Amino acid sequence: MKRMHAFLLLCLLTFGVTAQVSFEAKVSKKQLGINERLRIDFEMNQDGDNFTPPDFDGFRVVGGPNQAISNSYINGKRSYSKTYSYFLSPLAKGTVTINQATIEIDGDIYKTTPVTVTITEAVERPKDGNDAEYVASENVHLVAEVSKTNPYLNESLTVVYKLYVSDEVSITSNWREIDTPKYADFWSQNIDTQGNFKIYEGTYEGRPYRYVILRTTVLYPQKTGELEIEPLVLDVPIDVQSNRRDLFGRRLMTRVNKTISAGKRTINVKPLPEEGKPVTFSGAVGEFDFNVTSDKTTLDANESLELNIEVSGSGNLKLFNLPSAKTPSSLEVYDPERSEEVRTTASGMRGSVSESYVVVPQAKGIYPIRPISFSFFNPKTETYETRTSEEIVITVENGPAPVATNEENTTVSNNQTVVTAGDTFKYIKLNSNLTSVTTTPFLGSRLFWILLVAPFLLIPLFILIGKKRKERRADIAGNRLRKANRLAKKYLSEAKKNLTNKAVFYESLERALHNYLRAKLSIETSEFSKERIDGLLQQRGVDEATVASFITLLKSCELARYTPTTNVAIQQDYEKAVSVLSEIDKQLK
Mapped to the 3 state alphabet, what secondary structure does 43-62 carry? Predict the structure, then answer.
């Protein structure tokens, strides 16, 4: 009986010890609309290490991880709680399971229970003026303004993304781009704002608003029919006035993170009319001028002239082929060199494109270059237009006379001189001039002795090279340093190419840092929070100073896009990136 009591007591004590650790996942709601957000808390009653969240498949992480610690003593009894919180936005309707999170506490691994959440249709939010979420959604709007919704094929249109903010709320510039617009079946180019956002005054739905232009994109549709422009989606921190006040009676601000979208836009692209389409039409759409010029009209044989074909104006200048030069067959014409002087503004491409031909006449005579035609479609008049150049006559004054096959000059019906040079192959030497070759015995010659002795002289050299190679292999620290430097420069090669372009440089640098982390830590881009990176690097043996330098470099990439900087600072950031990546690669375990 005593043994049974002792066994029961031992079981109770064991249960009490194992029940002391608690680690569970709690969600704010089990059912929510697709336009709502979900908060999930991973809570533990003892401090732990190596927290690993689930992959949140079916959700977009719009906030977190936020960490909160509560440590209190009540009647001498300690109460401890540590929580990791995430804010999630659902991607689609249906039933979604949030998988297990893990934590290490006192050397043991604990896991949460999977949580199932049901995503329904969008729900109508209550119009509560005291609800910060509602106030934020009613006072911040992202709009995509399209200049044309029914353009012709290859006609330019402009999409301007504007962020409207009312005077009742305020936002910072720390918004985050979640989804980038996709322009399938369009030729596209962004108008660079250099990160300088100017604030304008305007109206939205009849109310006064402030707004900034986030992005301006010029599009040229490459396909007819209904084409969709995928939306721009932002995560924006919005400060809303709350009902609470500070000691001086001023109303306190509540920060709300909202996911706002510009919405999809549909463009109905019209085909170019078939009626009246010229044979010479090659896809040019816009308003153009056409010129064919020659830098010389009088020259000697075997001299060169430059024939230039140029199209200038506004339209899809980069998206069509120029007409070819029509020259007599007796003129030697080299492949053209294309030149583009095109700038893209909010109204589309403007400038000129040209092709320059080098032409070399071979014989004396008069050579006409026939008129060249260029056709384009003008969307303003909705008609095809054709421009034709003037005829250019090339006079070759000095040179060999053109001769026919019977040693006489002949011409074709169009008065073009036919050149048949009888001395075309005169430069080939027909008479040989051979000399006798005397041979000397190889055995006993100077070359024989050099080849015989050279291997013995090279043996000490090979021994020295092998010794140096062995020493280099034994230098583990040096080899690791050299390998780390090569790896860092490999990832940063693209950034180095753009040291003179601030925006492209920092975008390439940030992408290089992310690619390095993906390769080394096996994490996805969605997990690139600074706290997550900090934890993973320290777990892999990287010291705190190096991790802090890496995080500072990431912050520099984010800030440098929107703040002015110098070429010296860009060079310093590049050198710092090489140093930090090399140091991390040496320390990683």
Answer: EECCCCEEEECCCCCCEEEE
β-partners of residue 111 are 102
Which among 302, 298, 451 has a CA at the least distance from the CA of 362?
Answer: 302
Q: What phi, psi does 315 have (nearest 5°)? A: 155, -160
Strand partners, 110: 103
363: Cβ–Cβ under 8 A, 6 or more apart, which residues? 301, 330, 396, 399, 400, 401, 402, 417, 419, 421
Q: What is the pLDDT of residue 351?
A: 95
- Residue 200's CB is within 10 A of a number of other CB atoms, namely 12
Q: What does the alpha-carbon distance between residue 370 and residue 582 come to, in Å, rounded to a whole number?
A: 64
pLDDT of residue 132: 79
Distance CA 34, CA 447 (A): 87
For the chain, the straight-line distance linking the first and the last C-alpha, in angstroms and rounded, comes to: 56
Q: What is the pLDDT of residues 69-83, one digit of tens each?
A: 877 766 667 778 888
- Residue by residue, DSSP assigns 61-76 as EEEEEEEEEEEEEETT
Residue 228: strand pairing partners: 266
Taking only the tens place, the pLDDT of each residue in 394-413 is 999 887 877 554 433 333 33
Rounded distance between C-alpha atoms, residue 274 and residue 467, angstroms: 78
Residues of the chain with pLDDT under 50: 12, 14-19, 405-422, 424
Between helices 502-521 and 544-560, what is the axis angle to 10°? Answer: 140
DSSP secondary structure letter of residue 428: S
The b/e string for 152-164 (b: 16+ C-beta within 10 A; e otherwise) is bbbbbbbbbbbbb
Question: What is d(CA 201, CA 208) in angstroms, rounded to the nearest whole number?
Answer: 7
Residue 227 β-bridge partners: 267
Q: Give the rounded distance of the alpha carbon of 479 from its chain centre.
A: 34
Rounded Cα distance between 58 and 232, Å, is: 19
- Model pLDDT, residue 439: 63
Peptide bond into 65 cis (omega under 30): yes
For the question of whether the overall pTM of this predicted structure is more than 0.90, the answer is no
Question: Burial letters for 279-309: b for 16+ Cβ neighbours within 10 Å, e otherwise?
Answer: eebeebbbbbebbbebeeeebebeeebebbb
Element (H, E) at 568: helix 567-587
Domains plus CATH for the chain? 18-120 (2.60.40.740), 132-269 (2.60.40), 286-402 (2.60.40), 477-587 (1.20.120)
Element (H, E) at 119: strand 115-120
Q: Is 556 helix (H, G, I), strand (E, B) or coil?
A: helix
Q: Where is 298: in which H helix or E strand?
A: strand 298-299
Q: If DSSP states are collapsed to H, E and C, what string results for 498-547? A: CCCCHHHHHHHHHHHHHHHHHHHHCCCHHHCCHHHHHHHHHHCCCCHHHH
Residues pairing with 310 in the sheet: 291, 354
Q: Which pLDDT score is estimated for 227? A: 93
The residue among 179, 195, 156 whose CA lies nearest residue 230 is 179
